[in-house]
Amino acid sequence: MKQRYYSLDVFRGATVALMIMVNNPGTWAHMFAPLKHAPWHGCTPTDLVFPFFLFAVGNAMSFVIPRLQDAGDSVFWKKVVKRTILIFAIGLFLNWWPFVQWVGDSLHFKEWVNAENPEKGIRIFGVLQRIAVAYFFASVLAYYFSPKRLIYISAVLLLGYWGLCAFLGGSDPYSLEGWFGTAIDKQILGVAHMYKGEGVPFDPEGLMSTLPAIVQVVFGYLAGVFIKKQGQVDWLWTKVPASAEPHFKLLSGLFVTGFILVVLAWTWSLGFPINKKIWTSSYVLYTTGLGIMTIGGMIWFIEVQGVKNAVTKFFDVFGKNPLFIFVLSGLLPRFLGLFRIPNGMAEDGTAKYTTALAWFYNNVCAQIPGPPEVGSFVYSLCFLAVMWAICYALDKKGIYVKV
To answer: How far does CA 194 lie from the centroid of its chain?
Structure first.
C-alpha cells in the first residue's frame, strides 16, 4: 500500500469543500436543516466540518513531524512558529478585510476599536486562528512525546477541560450564560474583539475552547501514524497478530477505534453535552470517532478497492490548495460587496443597493421553484463550483499555495 494515502487528500479536500459550501448560503434565513449548526447542544452534519478539518491537519502532521525530528529542534521551531504566525495573521486579515465598509453613502475605514462604540471592533479569533493555535501546540506535543504518551496527555487535557467547565462555570456551566470561557475572553481579548453572533459577546473560537481543539489535531496525528504503519499498534497496549492481513489490521483498527470513541462520547455526553460552540470533550471524541470511521471508509473504497473517479478527483482538487481556497472563499464575497448596484428606492425615498452576488441569488437562484431553501442551496453549489474551477485551474498549472 502506498505510503502517501490518496484517501487522506480526498478527505481533506471534501472537508474544505463542505466548509466553503455551508459558509456561503444564498441567505442565512433559508437553509436545509443539515446545513445549519446546532442551536447549542447537539451535532448536525455541519458541526462535523470544522473538527474534521482539524483532524485532517493532524493527519498531515504525521507525514511532516518525522522529517522535522530528523532535521532537529532549530528547524522544527522555525517552521512551526513561522507557519503558526502566518496562518493566524491570515485569519486576522480575513476578519478585517476589506478594511472599509459602507456607512450611508460613503466608505469608512474599519477601525480596530470603533471610536463611537468601544464594544465594537475587529474580531481577533476565528477559524484560521484556531487552526493556527491548535496546530502549534499539537505539533509541539507530537514532536516531543511518543504516541503512547500523547494518548495520556490528551486524556488529561479533555478531563481537565471538563473540570474547568464544571467548577468554574455558573449554575448551568454548559450554557451560553454559564460557560466559564467567556469571562476569560472578555478579560484577555476584550469585548470589542469577540464574536457577537449569539446576540452577546461570546466567541466560539475563543481561548479556552481551543484547549480541547488541540486534542482534535493530536488525534488526527495519531490516526495518521496508525495509517502510515498500516495498522501496526505496537505503541499501544496490544498488538494485532503479525499474521493478520495489512488491510484487515488497518481497517479493523480504524473502525473499532472510531466506534469506541463514539460510544464513549455518547456516554460522556450524559454529563458533558456534545457541543461545538464550547467544543466540549465529548464533542471531540464524537467527531474524532466519526472522522476515523470516515477515513476508514475512504481507505476501503479508494486504496483497497481502487475507486478513483470524478467524485474523488473533485474533492482532491480542493485538497491541493485547502487553506488558499478557504481564504479566497471569504475574501471574494466581502470584496464584491464593496461594489453596490442601484436597486430601486426605499419607502422613505432613499436609494437602495444590492451587490453582484446578492443580485445573482435574488434574480436567479431564488426564482427556482420550490421552498426557498432550494434556491439558497443552489447558490451554495454555484459558489462552490466557482471555487472548484479556480482550484482546478491552479492544479492544471501545478500551482500549489503552501502556508
So the answer is: 18
Confidence check: pLDDT of 170 > 50: yes
Residue whose entry in the numeric block shows the C-alpha cell 484487515 = 248
In this structure, the number of other CB atoms found within 10 A of the CB of residue 359 comes to: 12
pLDDT at residue 243 is higher than 80: no
Length of the chain: 403
> What are the distances in angstroms from CA 350 to CA 15, 104, 336?
43, 10, 22
C-alpha to C-alpha distance for 47 and 396, rounded to whole angstroms: 32
Helix axis angle for 356-363 and 372-396, nearest 10°, is 130
Kindly give, in sequence order, each residue whose CB lies less than 8 Å from that of residue 239, ignoring residues fewer than 6 positions away: 232, 233
In whole angstroms, what is the distance from residue 278 CA to residue 280 CA? 6
The answer to whether 138 touches 58, Cβ cutoff 8 Å, is: yes
How far CA 277 is from CA of 40, 43, 57, 92, in Å, comes to 7, 10, 20, 20
Question: For the segment 76-93, what is each residue's pLDDT rounded down to a tens digit?
Answer: 999 999 999 999 999 999
Measured distance CA(245)–CA(230) in Å, rounded: 10
Task: Find, among 56, 58, 61, the residue nearest to 9 by Cα.
Answer: 56
Which amino acid is located at 226 in the chain? F
Q: Residue 345 is inside which H or E element, if any?
A: strand 341-345
Residues of the chain with pLDDT > 90, as a percent, come to 82
Backbone angles phi, psi at 42, to 5 degrees: 110, 180
pLDDT at 74 exceeding the cut of 70: yes
Q: What is the rounded end-to-end Cα distance, in angstroms, of the chain?
A: 28
Measured CA to CA, the distance from residue 341 to residue 334 in angstroms comes to: 15
Whether 69 contacts 143, CB under 8 Å: yes
CA dist 122 to 98, 133, 161, 178, Å?
12, 19, 28, 25
Distance separating alpha carbons of residues 138 and 104, to the nearest angstrom: 46
Closest CA to 222 of 158, 142, 284: 142
Taking the C-alpha atoms of residue 219 and residue 178, their distance in angstroms, rounded to an integer, is 28
Q: Is the dihedral of CA 188, 191, 193, 197 positive or negative?
A: positive
Q: Cα 287 to the chain's mean position, in Å?
A: 12
Q: Maximum distance among all alpha carbons in the chain?
A: 81
Q: How many Cα atoms occupy the beta-carbon half-sphere of 173 within 13 Å?
A: 14
